[in-house]
Amino acid sequence: MSNELMMILDHIERERGIAKDILIAAVESAMVSAVKKAIGAKTSENIKVVIDRATSAIKAYVDDEEIKSVDFGRIAAQTAKQVIIQKIREAEKDVIFSEFSAKIGDIVSGTVYRFDKGNIIVDLLGKAEGVMPKREQSPRDDFKQGQRVRAYVLDVKKETRGPQIILSRTSPLFVKKLFELEVPEIYEGIVEVRSISREAGERTKIAVWSKDEKVDCVGACVGMRGSRVKDIVTELQGEKIDIIRWSDDLREYITAALSPAKITEIRLDKENQKAQVIVAEDQLSLSIGKHGQNVRLASRLIGWDLDIRTREEIVKEKEEAKKVRAEMMLEGIGEKILSALMEAGLDTLEKVAASTVEQLTDIKGIGAKKAEKIIIAAKEKLSSHHESA
């Protein structure tokens, strides 16, 4: 049995990549259980099993005395084989877990094996199975059984039935990794991907920057006659990709991120990381994009809230704001109190009149008496409006 066992272990080491020492240690541990069962021992503390690496001989000891029972040999062999199979499976799972844990953040290739409740089960070159949940599949993907697929390793989880390898084709990092594979300048670190935003199946914006002034970062990503970006677009089933030149000049960066729309003016609110972007009337829909997609992706790319407006809209909003403030002006209320009321959401006479003293005193600068006067003044003004109407 020992020679046969060693041959099996040699085969597993070659075929499965599990170190022989790990397997032998697992067998020795399993044999302790077998010996315990064979001799009816109540504890394993004084039982030891040793496999000679040179001769393949298996010897068992109880309190340092070797067991030479015929029954032991037969029962131990049967029990050991069962436990060995389990130990080998566990060792294989550990190898797979370690191998694919090291690949988190990389792209792997495989073939579509089967479909399970909307999830795609991918055969990863016979080594393991990966699962691509429905949420991680691009709307453009339409894979068939047996079809080759490339995906991003999002996570690897240890589970009882074995490692669960989570794959994704919707992650923005999938696109980033594709650029690393297609663009040597990115792989070599000459060109950097500074930011990326994506709506899978629709559009991706990627901001790049070059460490070398002689290397055009956008040109490197596009490739000769668009060859490099075309290959990525093909992999993504036709998803649009905007390659943007990153800049530490925020206005320049925002302008590039909202391309192809032409920007008239940009007003920055650095404290709140907001920017008001002013465009001409004929550029409004282009800058916002279909269903707001262009401005939404640009905002994520930059990390700022972008508010797109035309000059006409700004003028109109200012006029409306003036009307509101004029309407809200009450006896005994100054500009500071008025601004505080509006910031608290009490931006109409109706809201002020319906508020309580407790609500108003929560606002800085308003005491109980002042609150009572404000509520009374608001009700009187509303009353006079109704009478005049």
Task: Explain how this protein is built.
By secondary structure, the protein is an alpha+beta fold. The protein has 5 domains: 2-101, N Utilization Substance Protein A, Chain:P, domain 4, CATH 3.30.1480.10; 107-170, Beta Barrel (OB fold (Dihydrolipoamide Acetyltransferase, E2P)), CATH 2.40.50.140; 171-246, K homology (KH) domain (GMP Synthetase, Chain A, domain 3); 247-322, GMP Synthetase, Chain A, domain 3 (2-Layer Sandwich); 329-388, DNA polymerase, domain 1 (Orthogonal Bundle). Helix content is 46%, strand content 23%. It contains 15 helices and 14 strands. The protein has helices at 2-16, 20-39, 70-101, 172-182, 184-187, 217-222, 227-235, 250-257, 284-288, 293-302, 311-328, 335-343, 349-354, 357-361, 368-388, and strands at 47-51, 58-62, 65-66, 107-116, 119-124, 128-132, 148-157, 164-168, 191-199, 203-210, 240-245, 265-269, 274-279, 305-310. A 5-stranded mixed barrel has the order 4-5-6-8-7. The longest helix is centred in the first third of the chain and has 32 residues, at 70-101. The chain starts with a helix and ends with a helix. The relative contact order is 0.05. The mean pLDDT is 86.
